[in-house]
Known about the structure:
This protein has one helix spanning 14-29; strands at 36-45, 56-64, 68-76, 82-92. The protein is α+β, with helices and mostly antiparallel strands. Strands 1-4-3-2 form a four-stranded antiparallel β-sheet, with helices on one face. The model has no long low-confidence stretch (mean pLDDT 96).
Amino acid sequence: xxxxxLNGAGLTHGSTVFALADIVFAAASNSHGPLALxxxxxxxxxxxxxxxxxxxxxxxxxxxxxRTGLYRLEVRDEKGDLxxxxxxxxxxxxx
Length: 95
């Protein structure tokens, strides 16, 4: 995290954490071929981080049907601590 990504309290801005989770959600939900678009994403912030933190995110597919995909999104810091936990529901467009 760089100073530009911090909020007024000097902590990593929630939109930065959300964007990281959203990127892995998009990658995972579109990994099967057909275009997938978000229907809903909810996020829980569980740990604050600040400048110098290194965040990584992982998406796990929990359920996939012909038209929807459900994903668990985890954002962790450089120590492996959970920073945010999100769930994303994607709509898979037909061909």
